[in-house]
Amino acid sequence: MFAWSYWRTIFAQIKPIPDKYKLPESELEKLLSAESEDAQRTILENFAKDLPIVTRTMSGSVRYCNRCVLVKPDRAHHCSICSRCVLKMDHHCPWVNNCVCYYNYKFFILFLGYALLYCIFVMSTCLPYFIKFWKGDFGPTAGAGRYHIVFCFFVSLMFGISLGSLFGYHCYLVANNRTTLEAFRAPMFRGGADKNGFSIGAYNNFKEVFGNSPNLWLIPVFTSFGDGIVYPLPAKDEDTESLLSSERWDRWGERARPLDERESSSYDEL
């Protein structure tokens, strides 16, 4: 399961941002020829008025990527290493040489969990030899071959501490429906920054990543809800966000309601 989760995290197919978010040439020319920031902001507002977005920049304008020439969907960010915008980007992980995002976040968490269990297993099997080494009970006939087991214990201990901290941190993020980027900088809405802007309760937050079926929670197959573009919001935000009018929300995505009443995305092949 550890190797499978690692493989899925590395080779998960990260789909590009839908074309409807990309500025056509006519709009791009208007944007580039605009004489002021207010004019650019108006152009982007008009283009994004029918897009299902609720997040804003610090100045309150539409989030726009100059490199990809598109309006960023909610929770999407540009990865400078991958040179593209990624849906629900968490971070770019050098250990998997891939962006951790909507498409492989479940796999990444399972990878951390199974790697931690593997380190605990190695430590527990090497512990008796470490105790003998500590007490000096190896004896003169033990040979140098036993010392690599002691070294293995220390390596697994160090990795176990690191993985345990990282796994615990991401469990906290899942429970609060945040990404690493959102934990460092709270997402901006029309009403201001809100670190819990996407949180719909710990259990529903968990199911948004792992799906409805408990039998598949610990298996690295894709069971996350949604499409990575539209996210349910807490009920309090539905009343305050003008972009979430019932007509537009019904048109583009699911209304915020308990996840067990919604259908999960189809599972990919094992």
Automatic annotation (TrEMBL):
Its EC number is 2.3.1.225. Pfam families: DHHC (PF01529). Keywords: Acyltransferase, Membrane, Transferase, Transmembrane, Transmembrane helix. It catalyses: L-cysteinyl-[protein] + hexadecanoyl-CoA = S-hexadecanoyl-L-cysteinyl-[protein] + CoA. One of its GO terms (molecular function) is protein-cysteine S-palmitoyltransferase activity. The keyword Ribonucleoprotein does not apply. Its main location: membrane. The chain crosses the membrane at residues 107-131, 147-169. It is a multi-pass membrane protein. It is found in: Membrane. One of its GO terms (cellular component) is membrane. InterPro entries: Palmitoyltrfase_DHHC (IPR001594), PFA4/ZDH16/20/ERF2-like (IPR039859). Coiled coil: none annotated. The keyword Protein transport does not apply. It comes from the Eukaryota. It is an enzyme of class 2 (transferase). Residues 63-184 form the Palmitoyltransferase DHHC domain. The DHHC domain is required for palmitoyltransferase activity. Belongs to the DHHC palmitoyltransferase family. This is Palmitoyltransferase.
